[in-house]
Each structure stands twice: as structure tokens, then as C-alpha cells.
Design brief:
The protein has helices at 8-11, 18-27, 46-58, 60-67, 76-90, 94-97, 109-121, 136-144, 161-173, 199-211, 272-285, 291-303, 305-331, 364-371, 403-419; strands at 32-33, 104-107, 127-132, 148-155, 158-159, 180-185, 219-223, 249-254, 266-269, 339-340, 348-352, 374-375, 377-378, 393-397. It is built from 15 helices and 14 strands. 42% of the residues lie in helices and 14% in strands. Helix 3 crosses helix 12 and helix 13 runs parallel beside helix 15. It is α/β, with parallel strands linked by helices. The strands form 3 sheets. The chain has an 8-stranded mixed sheet with strand order 2-9-8-7-6-3-4-5, sandwiched between helices. The protein has a 4-stranded antiparallel sheet with strand order 10-11-14-13, with helices on one face. The structure holds pyridoxal-5'-phosphate (PLP). Pyridoxal-5'-phosphate is lined by residues 37, 109-111, 135, 186, 191, 223, 225, 254, 256, 261, 266. Pyridoxal-5'-phosphate binds at residues 37, 109-111, 135, 186, 191, 223, 225, 254, 256, 261, 266.
């Protein structure tokens, strides 16, 4: 019998860890999932979406245009509004930014754009530098492209840019710099850690990209999927903002988190000379994202429903985040040695258990958690395999569950952790390291 002869790329494409969570959810129907990266169900904007669809379809000419194929780059009025939206966040005029609507590309979720950017810029054996930990779904994409991911540690101010500078200097000395094509950062309320990159580091990152563009342009992929979901404090300028000649930073964002993932519509603002190469790939993929969804999003932005909805979401998620943080305080007192992040936005809290208490998919903690009917994302998924991989962390999402279920989920997690040895009595620990 003939063998199944997959391409090299197919053979280096592994199952995404997401399959693991789907299976666990099916096997444990009463499970409280603090693992799912889904958004809040109750606040999904059915009325706003219905009104926008109705308005478009009630106008025969507009309706037919929306139901026809669109363009590869996206619906022109939407691209224009996306730029205006971005500049509104930055507090910049078009002239100040030097950007134009032709630098905007609409995609089928920002995930498609991340993939296409990888296809456009990266060859097998190339190097991408990412934060440690980082968004594991994109690691899968990069592995499938045959790309090597090197990770740089992060702290509460985001990627450690001193460590990045050292790594780049070392790669340069070792003659590997020509292989380093891109630095990937999730700079607002990072998935998975909830951390945000500081203003100083944003600036430094662009300086480093400029400095190390010796052989070819070193790009920064700024994945700002969660930027608009801020619950405290002031917004920070994007990294793109410091890329004053629009040469280094590819900014990707999405309507999935601030509006609805069902639209599966994302977008990017790219260096001008990368737009056409990217569109050639997108032409091969789908020659344009859902036109109808783009018309609807255009209308939602036009009418201001988008902004009202994001305001409402901020209140919904703030309450959930506060419920999770308060439950963690109550269930994991200092004596347990557990520490966690306190994000100002996004959907995730990152918890670190004491040394020895591993969280991996086959760990005693995971078994105990499933027995208690609670699920988290093992932190090790967010590190590339190797010596720097931390095995005692976990991503906890407050996006999907109600505040009550979040509290119950954290209580279950604490019971599970105690059953596998989480300390109940005082242990020596460093002062002031709870974040
Ligand atoms: C950091 C990050 N980037 C990109 C995406 C992709 O989202 P979408 O394709 O729905 O825009 C996600 C989804 O969870 C994400 O967490």
C-alpha cells in the first residue's frame, strides 16, 4: 500500500496544545476551565451585530456589494477607519505618524497575519526572538516553518531588553546575526503572563532593531491583540509609534478580543515595502477575508457601537480580574510560596508555584486539578524546549467563567495544589516577590 507522503512542512507541524484542552473539556463536563482563551460569552454584542447586518442587507446595493468578493487587502473604508482608530489610540495625526491607509491590511483573524508574516519573512533555520514565556500558538506556527525560537526572559516591565541586547551581541559575535529576522513581542497584557512592556523598553527595542539591522532589516512583530482591554491606568504608545520611518515594526491587532472572535477579522499596519509581498501570500491563501464581516465592522466603527462595546467589556473583565486576584489572595496565602502577576488588562494571570511543584500535562498537579474539575494551561507550553523552560507556572484565564465560577475554580486549584504538596506552613521566602 502506498504511504502517506507529507511535505516537510506538514511533518514539522505538530498538534497545537489546544487539542489537549478540548479533550479534557469533553471528558470533564463539569470542568471550570481557567485554560480556555475564549472571550466572555454573555457580553458578545448580538444586538449591535444584528443592527449592523440588518442595515447593510436592507440596502440592496450595499448588501450585494457586501455579499460579493472583496479585495485581498480589505474593504477600503474599513482600512481607513482602522488607521483612524490606531491614530486615535496613539493621539497622533496622519501627518505626524507618516502612515496611510495603504499600510493597513485586513486579515482573517490576526492569527492569519502572524502566519503570513512568518511565511513572508522567514526561511527554515532562521531565528525569531520571543519573550519567555510567550504565545504558544505562534511557537507552533514558527516550528512548522522550520524556524528556531530563542527566548529572552521578561519581568513585570516586559521583555528584558538588556538581556535582548546581550543575546543580539552574542549572535553577532557568533556570526548568526544574518539568521535573526524578527523579534516577536506581545506588548500589552501579554498572553500568557498578563504583563505589559514599559515605555522605556518599547523605545529601546526599536533602537536595538535599528542597531542590529546590519545585514538585513531586523523586524519587530508587535502583537497588540489585547491593547484595548485595559482596566486600570493609562494606555501606552505602541512600539510602532517609535518606528518613525515605518521600517521595522509590523503591528498586528484584532477585532476578536475587543468585539467578537466570530468575525475572525484582524488587521496589521506594516512597513510600506512589506505590504505588497504580504498581499501576494494572502492572495494565495484566500484573496481576501470575509467581505460581509468587514462591512459590518466598518459600520460598527462608524456608528460608535464598537467604542461603546469596548467600554462595556472593560467593566465586565475588570470585575472578573478582580474576582480572580481576590480569590488568589484568599486561597494562596503567602506561606504557600505561590506568586502571580496582577495585570492591568487582558485576560490572563500567570501563577508560579514553589520549586518542585510542577504543572505539566502529566504532573500530579494536573491530575489533581482534573479530579477537582478545574483546568489551567501548563506554563511549560509557553517556553521552547530547553534548559530555560520553567515547569512550575500556569496561565489562568478570567475571560470565560463568571466571577462566581472563577472564585470556585481558584478554590479547586488550591485544593488540588495542597493535595500534591503545596506548603500550608511558613517557609523562608524572599520579601516582596509577589508579582
Ligand atoms: C497574543 C495573541 N495573538 C493573536 C491571537 C489571534 O487571535 P485572532 O486570530 O482571533 O485575531 C490571539 C488569540 O488568542 C492571541 O492571544
Amino acid at each position: 500500500m502506498a504511504t502517506v507522503d507529507l511535505s516537510i512542512r506538514a511533518r514539522q507541524t505538530e498538534d497545537q496544545p489546544i487539542s489537549y484542552f478540548m479533550k479534557a473539556a469533553v471528558e470533564h463536563p463539569n470542568l471550570i476551565s481557567l485554560a480556555a482563551g475564549l472571550v466572555d460569552q454573555e457580553s458578545l454584542p448580538t444586538e449591535d451585530a444584528k443592527a449592523a447586518f440588518d442595515e447593510i442587507l436592507a440596502d440592496p446595493a450595499l448588501g450585494r456589494a457586501a455579499l460579493q468578493y472583496g479585495t485581498t487587502e480589505g474593504y477600503a473604508p474599513l482600512r481607513d477607519k482602522i488607521l483612524a482608530h490606531h491614530l486615535g489610540l496613539e493621539g497622533q495625526t496622519r501627518a505626524e505618524s507618516g502612515l496611510s491607509a495603504s499600510d493597513v491590511v485586513v486579515s482573517t483573524g490576526s492569527q492569519q497575519l502572524l502566519y503570513l508574516i512568518g511565511e513572508m519573512l522567514l526561511d527554515p533555520g532562521d531565528i525569531v526572538i520571543a519573550e519567555a514565556p510567550s504565545y504558544f500558538v505562534y511557537h507552533g506556527t514558527l516550528a512548522s516553518l522550520g524556524v528556531r525560537v530563542l527566548q529572552v526572559p521578561m519581568d513585570d516591565s516586559g521583555m528584558d531588553t538588556d538581556a535582548l541586547a546581550e543575546l543580539l551581541a552574542r549572535l553577532d559575535r557568533d556570526g548568526e546575526l544574518p539568521r535573526v529576522k524578527m523579534i516577536y513581542v506581545i506588548d500589552y497584557f501579554q498572553n500568557p503572563s498578563g504583563r505589559t512592556m514599559s515605555l522605556e523598553r518599547r523605545q529601546r527595542l526599536v533602537e536595538l532593531a535599528r542597531k542590529y539591522s546590519k545585514h538585513r532589516t531586523l523586524y519587530i512583530l508587535e502583537d497588540a491583540a489585547y491593547r484595548e482591554l485595559r482596566y486600570d491606568g493609562d494606555d501606552l504608545p505602541s512600539i510602532k509609534r517609535f518606528d518613525t520611518d515605518n521600517r521595522h515594526v509590523l503591528l498586528t491587532m484584532t477585532f476578536s478580543k475587543p468585539m467578537a472572535p466570530g468575525f475572525k477579522t484582524g488587521y496589521g499596519i506594516l512597513p510600506t515595502d512589506l505590504v505588497q509581498p504580504l498581499l501576494r501570500f494572502k492572495g494565495n491563501h484566500d484573496f481576501g477575508s470575509s467581505n460581509l464581516n468587514q462591512y459590518v465592522l466598518d459600520r460598527l466603527l462608524e456608528k460608535g457601537d464598537y467604542y461603546r462595546h469596548v467600554d462595556h467589556l472593560r467593566d465586565v473583565y475588570r470585575e472578573k480580574r478582580d474576582a480572580m486576584l481576590a480569590a488568589l489572595e484568599a486561597e494562596f496565602p503567602a506561606v504557600t510560596g505561590a506568586t502571580w502577576t496582577r495585570p492591568d488588562g487582558g485576560l490572563y494571570v500567570w501563577i508560579r508555584f514553589p520549586d518542585g511543584l510542577e504543572t505539566g500535562p502529566d504532573s500530579p498537579l494536573m491530575k489533581a486539578a482534573l479530579a477537582e474539575e478545574v483546568l489551567y494551561v501548563p506554563g511549560e507550553f509557553c517556553y521552547v524546549k530547553g534548559p530555560g523552560r520553567v515547569r512550575t507556572e500556569a496561565r489562568l484565564s478570567f475571560g470565560v467563567s463568571t466571577p462566581d465560577r472563577i472564585r470556585e475554580g481558584i478554590a479547586r486549584l488550591a485544593r488540588a495544589a495542597r493535595s500534591v504538596g503545596l506548603p500550608r506552613v511558613s517557609q523562608p521566602r524572599l520579601a516582596g516577590c509577589r508579582g
